[in-house]
Amino acid sequence: MIIFNYLLICFIFGTTFLAIKIGVDASTPPFFSAGIRFFAAGLLVFLWLAWNKKASFALLFHKEMLLTGIGLTFGTFSTLYWAEQYVSSGIAAVLSATAPMIILVLQVLVLRQKTSARSVFGCVLGFAGIVLLLLPRLTLSADLGWMIGCVAILFGQLFYASGTLYSKRVIQRFPQASPIALNAAQMIWGGLLLLILSSVTEQVDIQSMLTTKAIGSLLYLIVIGSMVGHSLFYWLIAKTNPIFPATWLYVSPTIALVLGFLLYGETISWLSIIGVFTIITGTVFANLDSLKLLLCKRGTADMMPARKADAHGIIHPSK
User: Fold this and answer.
1) In the chain, alpha helices (H)
2) Domains held by the chain: number
3) At residue 161, what are phi and psi to the nearest 5 degrees?
4) Neighbours of 138 (CB within 10 A)
5) 319 located within any domain
6) What's the rounded Cα separation, in Å, for the pair 277 and 284?
7) Residue 153 sits in which domain range?
8) pLDDT digits (tens, 9 = 90+) for 129-170
9) How far apart are CA 170 and CA 182, in angstroms?
10) Each residue's pLDDT tens digit, 212-246
């Protein structure tokens, strides 16, 4: 079940970058679009859980929900949505792939966890990949909006990394709460903050947003991208660790690049392609120790029920 859900979020998140780009290009204000997406998705999921007595409204009033919403939703997607006005969906996805590497850096610098030389090499390699990715546009005539957009996405990954690490503590602090309810609560707060930001920075013309592309993009992101994708992501954090779910960023950039090229006519240079694979390779190296540890734990866990079944002659169904 873990592997299936992991592959599903890889595909879902790989498509969301293009969906965001389509919505932004359809003249949808970025902060307003992001705010509606997450507030609506979080509220619908939370109301459904509350109706089925699987969530309490008291959960919404804990500061942990606000702080997680600032990290995983507000900080991450305010920068991403704004940047996709100037940056292609494929490049946005690749720059977002730096998140697991930033998680590692935060674990070392802030949480004082030890790391290996291989992880340090991965971080250096990933940084080199970012330089290669941006190099074709690093000229005197470079589009300033494109450059600022790239930096904004990278800055947003600091929020994403912090929110991912913090969310693990939140799950442990609320062991009786469903991970999906916790995720819905943080989306409500993150979406609300995005709407507040939109109200003071954007002029929203609802009439101009009533187009097939704008509405289709928003509905896809609300239902598939947030209600399904982010709930699965939070569930995976609860079942594994903060590193493993974030590794969807190793796979999704390739999906986003291909979709952007085939469906939206986005272009990318050969040097940037080398940068893409350098970033992904560096990120894998940076988190290889955690991935190996996770696989070993999963392998041990899978073997234990098998031994028990052999000893008693009974095969226990998986949950």
Assistant:
1) 2-25, 30-51, 63-69, 76-83, 89-96, 99-109, 117-134, 144-173, 179-201, 212-220, 231-239, 243-246, 248-264, 270-286, 288-312
2) 1
3) -65, -45
4) 9
5) no
6) 10
7) 2-312
8) 877 777 766 654 557 888 899 999 999 999 988 998 898 889
9) 8
10) 999 999 999 999 998 888 778 777 877 776 667 76
